[in-house]
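User: two proteins, same treatment. go.

Assistant:
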Amino acid sequence: GEQMKSELEKDFITHGKEYKNLKDLLRRLTKHIQQPKGFQYEIFLLKSDELNAFTVGGKIFVTKKMYDFCKNNDELACVIGHEICHNELGHIRRQIQSERLLQSAQVVKNILTLSFGQKKEAHCDMMGVDMAIAAGYNGCVAVGLWRRMKEESQEGDTNAFWNLLRSHPYSEIRSVCVGAHIEENYGHSCSN
């Protein structure tokens, strides 16, 4: 995490209401981590036109484009909660161990671009929504967030063959799964 932080530092936005808002969101969400693994979370806003958020070693990076893409703090909370869950579930550590590569920051960057796997991504979607709801945010917004992601990324309709080659689930599938998760576990339909 420290390597990535130092490599990206030149692109940090370290002042202003958006940066403060991210810090406040992170502080509020981390209070709701069940059985925390001891990460000292930090969040960074990056000058970037890439629609992305990612994490390593308790460091969470949110691009300016992702920040602007999210319509409100409820959506941002779901995104940040998702990234927290990757840390808490040990996905990054396991990925690094399985690759047996930790020689340089470039290697860490390469690992971050690899998939955590569709199941792990979906698991973090659900847990991130749970964390957002526990912190008082509206988790249903994740349904619309993923639908807009589908449009923004122009990923098209789901395709069983191409799905085998994807690192992340299709956004439409993520939208449906999050809605079903909320209905099943909270007794609330996001379509209402």
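Protein 2:
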Amino acid sequence: YEDVLSDDVEIVLSERGAAVDIEALEGLQMAMKNYQNGDFAQAIPAFEQYLQSSTKEYKGREVRFYLAIAQLGTAQTPKAIKNLKGLVEDSSFKHQIDAQWYLALAYIKNEQKQEAKKWLEELRNSNYKDKVTQLLETLE
């Protein structure tokens, strides 16, 4: 999933007067670089550390989303499912549709086809509709 977080973090870090944990944000910045490079194994502990920091309220949902995708990419599928379900159920998360897509993929990877189909059906009229149609056909 594309990085929609790093630019915001960079802005906050450049405004050194902001009441944020600079060390936590710099760790998040490094996690996103690892994520962008496909080094999910390095990104995961940094994402988790950020989520345990005092700054976690700043973009915490987005960080959890990237953590879940990294977990999915490193065969930590049950953890990814747990994180994605939490985001899908959070109506204030602005990437809820994307979280549903990755949740469906996680269920497929976890060999839970019926659960995956349920989420894919909900995405039939989303921006993922072409991918959903193809994926549903392969799951039949």
